[in-house]
From TrEMBL:
PANTHER family: IG-LIKE DOMAIN-CONTAINING PROTEIN, MHC CLASS II-RELATED. This is Uncharacterized protein. It comes from Corvus moneduloides (New Caledonian crow). SUPFAM superfamilies: Immunoglobulin. Residues 180-210 are annotated as: Disordered. InterPro entries: Ig-like_dom, Ig-like_dom_sf, Ig-like_fold, Ig_C1-set, MHC/Immunoglobulin. It comes from the Eukaryota. The keyword Ion transport does not apply. Signal peptide: none annotated. Keywords: Disulfide bond, Immunoglobulin domain. It holds the Pfam family C1-set. Residues 180-201 have a biased composition (Polar residues).
């Protein structure tokens, strides 16, 4: 038999609850876990599995306007997620096995990042032909963040270097990106650093330097 313990939680700006609290099922059975949140603007939903004595493991994410995206090792055939409304979401786990008995399932909050742009140092401007701008996105959760540079309203990829993965800082994450531009161009442009918690999500925060 598989014993699952979905855990309710409270997110920032939203109340989140899951039920049933405890589930006892036989191997081969299916089980459905319900989630409710009372914040109508919370478009994204992330489902996590919590193995014993380990951190959360992302299984699937989705939004009100996009298809569910499953992490490696997980599929819709096993973990079916349906969003009945903005407030109600349910996950059905099919063909239960002992591996599904992993302490709990959690539908977690989304925390948008704080974003800041740091201008080139005077020393770099004086001594080098290129100037480096640094964009720091911090305090966000979960760790799936996309960062885009725009210069004078146009997306910029040349000269951009972004960390391969987010850095964990306690319960949140940070991500750094650098934009190198010709020194003469760095003084006469409008630079914008935009972030989003999914490649299809609208910008959640931004900062600008001129």
């Amino acid at each position: 038999a598989a014993w699952l313990s979905p855990r309710p939680c409270v997110g920032i700006g939203a109340y989140i609850a899951q039920w049933p609290e405890k589930i006892l099922k036989r191997a081969g059975d299916s089980v459905t876990i319900f989630c409710y949140q009372n914040y109508s603007n919370l478009a994204y939903v992330f489902w996590y599995q919590q193995p014993p004595r380990n951190g959360l493991k992302l299984v699937v994410s989705g939004s009100t306007w996009s298809r569910n995206s499953y992490e490696d090792g997980y599929s819709e055939a096993k973990f079916e997620v349906n969003r009945e409304s903005t407030e109600y979401t349910l996950m059905t786990i099919k063909n239960l096995t002992p591996k599904d008995e992993r302490g709990g399932w959690k539908n977690d909050e989304i925390i948008p990042p704080a974003v800041a742009i740091f201008s080139p140092s005077k020393q770099e401007i004086q001594q080098k032909s290129k100037a480096t701008l640094v964009c720091l996105a911090s305090g966000f959760y979960p760790d799936h963040l996309t960062l885009v540079w725009r210069v004078n309203g146009v997306k910029r990829t040349e000269g951009v270097g972004t960390d391969e993965s987010s850095t964990r800082n306690g319960s949140t994450y940070s991500l750094t990106s650098r934009l190198r531009m010709p020194n003469k161009s760095s003084r006469s442009y409008s630079g914008l650093c935009k972030t989003s918690l999914s490649s299809t999500h609208k910008a959640t925060d931004n900062n600008e330097t001129k």
